[in-house]
Amino acid sequence: MAACALRRGLLSTVSKYNKKHAHRILSVVDSSSGSEAFRPRVQCRACGLSGGFQQKRFMSSRPEGKILETVGMFEAVKQHGKYETGQLFLHSVFGYRGIVLFPWHARLYDRDITPPMSESKPDSPGAHGSKEVKGKTHTYYQVLIDTRDCPHISQRSQTEAVTFLANHDDSRALYAIPGLDYVSHEDILPYNSTEQIPIQHELFERFLMFNPAKAPPFTPRDTLKAWQEKNHPWLELSDVHRETTENIRVTVIPFYMGMREAQNSHVYWWRYCIRLENMGDEVVQLRERHWRIFSLSGTLETVRGRGVVGREPVLSKEQPAFQYSSHVSLQAPSGHMWGTFRIERTDGSHFDVRIPPFSLESNKDDKAPPAGYTF
């Protein structure tokens, strides 16, 4: 119910926000046990998440033995400006509860927008005919995901997608921070809560403190500021690439992770986050991936395989998006990646969706390249 509303009707509803008609966000309490389950709420047919935006006329449809409890109130969506540290939100696509840690200002290269001739650039080598456009500044946020919602979004979005290199010489050692995500400004549905700890995450109280005199009432601790500063090189989000083919939009965000030495050579590592989103009404399924990886050293590698990260996700109107992260390493400080996803329709026919070309840059001019995670 909640996530369905978020996806189909909630955006238009919140955009018409009126202070006289604040919208409640609801969770479930198990009346049989008497204990509050401020965890995933009434199961949503659309995406497995629950709770969320409900009006009184829906309350009679709650499952037997469950009652709805208010956990927060929606706020006006910000059309201009940015959300501050401590802002509570629901993700408009995946439906999870989260809190903003700090913003990133990225360059968005949207190939669905035709630029003026004066702003267009020539195609890069191997860019499969896709035009390059001038980057436009766009705000993303580093956020914490409520751990109670993680099991309900794990089939649609990885909750351990933010990875880093270990602080030692093992070039293949990668680690992840559970419940850390990057969220675009338009995916934020802000709300407020009277709870002093409204988000369950092991880093919540280490990073934030409750301050009722502030709005939002959660302010950063010194540990958050120090953590951001120390880990800025591998956390930083700088470029976002987007392209749509036959109503399937692909968004790619690359991250430079650092360099390690292996067998007397330098190995440069990147992670990349990809989101596929079905913008149409037709049900489709991702079947294959086809990557081309070009290295500054002159090598061109082709990678083909079934699905992505071991899955072949179905993209429907009810569950339109799938997001995952993966990694690539080169024996050169820079390169390019591009490719296609093979998509299957319900009638068995196929079409290829373009993955927008993106650069792999090592920030080799930095005096202190990323060395690994530091708390």
Automatic annotation (TrEMBL):
Chief location: mitochondrion
Subcellular location: Mitochondrion matrix; Nucleus
Lineage: superkingdom: Eukaryota
GO molecular function list: DNA binding
GO biological process, one term: error-free translesion synthesis
Pfam families for this protein: DUF525 (PF04379), YccV-like (PF08755)
GO CC annotation terms, alphabetical: mitochondrial nucleoid; nucleus
Quaternary structure and partners: Interacts with PCNA and POLD2. Interacts with SSBP1. Interacts with PRIMPOL; leading to enhance DNA polymerase activity of PRIMPOL. Interacts with POLH. Interacts with POLD1; leading to stimulate DNA polymerase activity of POLD1.
Function according to Swiss-Prot or TrEMBL: Involved in DNA damage tolerance by regulating translesion synthesis (TLS) of templates carrying DNA damage lesions such as 8oxoG and abasic sites. May act by stimulating activity of DNA polymerases involved in TLS, such as PRIMPOL and polymerase delta (POLD1).
Protein name, as recorded: Polymerase delta-interacting protein 2
Organism (species): Notothenia coriiceps (black rockcod)
